[in-house]
Amino acid sequence: MRKLRSLAFIALALGATAAAAQNAQVAKEVTSDSLNFFGIVDVALSYGTGSVANLTQLASGKSSTSRWGVRGFENLGGGLAAGFWLEGQLNVDTGGTGTSNMNNQSGGTIDALFGRRSTVSLMDFWGEMRLGRDFTSIFRNRDDVDPFSTTGVGANLADALTIDGPTATRASNMVAYFLPPGLGGFFGEAQYFMGENAQVTGQPSVNDGNGYAGRLGWGNGAFAVAVAGSRTRVAQTATTGDIEAVNVGASYDFQVVKISAGYYHDEIKQISPLTATGWLLGAVVPLGATQLKMSYSSYGTDAAGDPRGDKLAVGFLYSLSKRTAAYGTYAYLHNSGGASYALNGSITAPDRHSSGFDLGIKHSF
What is the pLDDT of residues 119-155, one digit of tens each? Predict the structure, then answer.
């Protein structure tokens, strides 16, 4: 933990983390009851090429993850409100649904109707208490700075290649608290989640899947900055151990261009610890109904040879209406140190490159 605290200090000193205050998902005052059905249908022609094998496919969610859900709020009076949020993944190309990890551990994956989010909340002037399955703090920090929203061929490599395990994106069995709005631009959250293992005396894996995470940031107008950290308990072996993560990022909107940056440090406390580091630089340029997007991301570990991937991504999103958009993304990935990462399902040999593109359409409802 001493090393984790040191990394957090370094990250703050660098001043790099992004997370717009409006994306903090803190509770707003609810003045009337509401019930909404919502979703996104996104499908693309996807192509990936590598030195060993290429792949062409019709793929779901290459600009925004295809999803559907229902959410509601009830005004309980005196500023107190209750709410719920049920959201599931859609695989538009096959008609299938997504999966969920029910216990925050390897091997706990099941088909899930509402695997993206299933929460119930109480909200008041003191903030929001949220219970259920939700994004982890460290994911929100990766997602907020990525021009491609950690989705598709252009997604941040620190997200696509993360070693943070089952709780890298979401955690089940979570109790979370979110700061209220109106704190001079400050926002934050604290999370505790459980693996829900039987308490067997002397069993080393009894705490597997238990963990905590947190995030603190500040946003005011064009600028936003946040730092996040997490720890997930895993019994120590030659290939497993507690997972610790710290990330930090920032964004600034110049109106003609919005720039963002992020830094990531992940570690698995196995018998011989494995450490991964990464970073991202991104930009979004609004041109009328079109957004031009670009990013450069890097992620690698200290395993033998120091395998690492570096990716350049460029793309566009053209709004045909308020709810419908067409998009295209191209990415080129360079491997080094024996890495053989590949894009869009292709296969490439160690230290060889991979490239790919997505061309699709999405509709929100």
Answer: 999 999 999 999 999 999 999 999 999 999 999 999 9
Residues 6+ away with beta carbon under 8 Å from 295: 146, 147, 148, 154, 156, 280, 281, 282, 283, 311, 312, 313
Domain boundaries, the chain: 2-364
CATH topology of domain 2-364: Porin (2.40.160)
Among 347, 345, 343, smallest CA distance to 356 is for 343
Name the helix (H) or strand (E) containing 314.
Answer: strand 308-319
Instruction: Kindly report, residue by residue over 318-346, the tens digit of the pLDDT.
Output: 999 999 999 999 999 999 999 999 999 99
Any idea which of 1-15, 95-109, 307-321 has the lowest mean pLDDT? Answer: 1-15
Q: Of the candidates 134, 114, 102, which has an alpha carbon nearest to the alpha carbon of residue 26?
A: 134
Buried/exposed 179-215: b ≥16 CB within 10 Å, e otherwise: bbbeeeebbbbebebbbebeeeeeeebbbbbbbbbbb
| Cα–Cα distance measured from residue 80 to residue 155, given in angstroms and rounded to the nearest whole number | 38
Tokens 């926002």: give the residue: 187
Q: What is the structure's pLDDT at 28?
A: 44
How would DSSP label each residue in 74-95? EEEETTEEEEEEEEEEEETTTT
pTM of the model: 0.88
Phi, psi at residue 311, to the nearest 5°?
A: -130, 135
Question: Closest Cα partner for 146 from 13, 336, 331, 306?
Answer: 331
The type of residue at 169 is T
The tokens describing 316, both together, are 């566009």
Task: Give me the residue label for tokens 């995030």.
Answer: 215
